[in-house]
């Protein structure tokens, strides 16, 4: 078993890997892992490292200390969200086309080619909860608390959450949580479909790791990367015909590749599969049926 290794050093994050699983830890425990512009930039860089490393097959995101992420760092005072004073908008954006920094992270999470498991160990409010929406599986500690608190801070939901949240939990639940801005517990998050499991605190990371290792040990990396995009894209499709077109194109592409042949042969021979395709080399990003209506992402 290879040892845990640090993939890159950051000031607000830790990125480590073991057994094909990367663990990205938000690491400002003295500030309850509050979100800053620096954290956003480091998060974007970490996702680039993750996508480029074919040894990484799945990702766990969690927080250091007692919180997952307590939202935007408000230590700058009342002007935190003022584009003329704070740092919650991209400084390179123009006034006519501002870009919410949390949204930059959400879009990059959406485009990630590795499945992402959120291990929510404590408070997840503001951008701390909207950031988990583009993740694929959300697990919560029984100590976790959630809050879409934007209306209580005189702002609005951000980080693309107006797109993600209703798709994840439905419009009625999304509107209740957003309009009240109240903080709620892990049991309510489970009932509302925001998380799929609530676990004893000490069982959270082992469960997340077991799920990530199951993916890493048994699946085709390229199949998972494509399936992830297919599922997310079809949430907004107007008709199942769009899914037929996308599914058919992806099946045609994968069916002609070595991973498909290996998947069938390993099943027939009753042995573990050894999938040869690599995401960094073989992901069909150039095909027109991926992101057909979206402009290129600019980090």
Short description, anyone?
39% of the residues lie in helices and 16% in strands.
Instruction: Report the strand count.
Output: 11
Stated plainly, the CATH topology of the largest domain is called 2-enoyl-CoA Hydratase, Chain A, domain 1
- The assigned CATH architecture of the largest domain is Alpha-Beta Complex
* Sheet with most strands: 7 strands, mixed
Rg of Cα set: 19 Å
Order of helices and strands: EEEHEEHEEHEEHHEHEHHHHH
Which structural class best describes the helix and strand composition? alpha/beta
- Number of helical segments with 4 or more residues: 11
Question: What fraction, in percent, of the residue positions are helical?
Answer: 25-40%
Strand arrangement within the widest β-sheet reads 1-2-3-4-6-8-11
Estimate the mean pLDDT confidence.
Answer: 89
Going by CATH, the homologous superfamily of the largest domain would be 2-enoyl-CoA Hydratase, Chain A, domain 1
Task: Please give a structural write-up.
The chain has 299 residues and is of the alpha/beta class. The protein has 2 domains: 5-216, 2-enoyl-CoA Hydratase, Chain A, domain 1 (Alpha-Beta Complex); 220-282, Lyase 2-enoyl-coa Hydratase, Chain  A, domain 2 (Orthogonal Bundle), CATH 1.10.12.10. 39% of the residues lie in helices and 16% in strands. It contains 11 helices and 11 strands. It has helices at residues 37-52, 101-111, 127-130, 161-169, 171-180, 186-191, 204-218, 221-234, 240-255, 258-268, 279-282, and strands at 5-9, 13-18, 21-26, 58-63, 67-69, 116-120, 123-125, 137-141, 145-147, 183-185, 197-199. Strands 1-2-3-4-6-8-11 form a 7-stranded mixed β-sheet, sandwiched between helices. A hairpin with a 3-residue loop joins strand 1 (5-9) and strand 2 (13-18). The longest helix is centred in the first third of the chain and has 16 residues, at 37-52. The radius of gyration is 19 Å and the shape is globular. The mean pLDDT is 89.
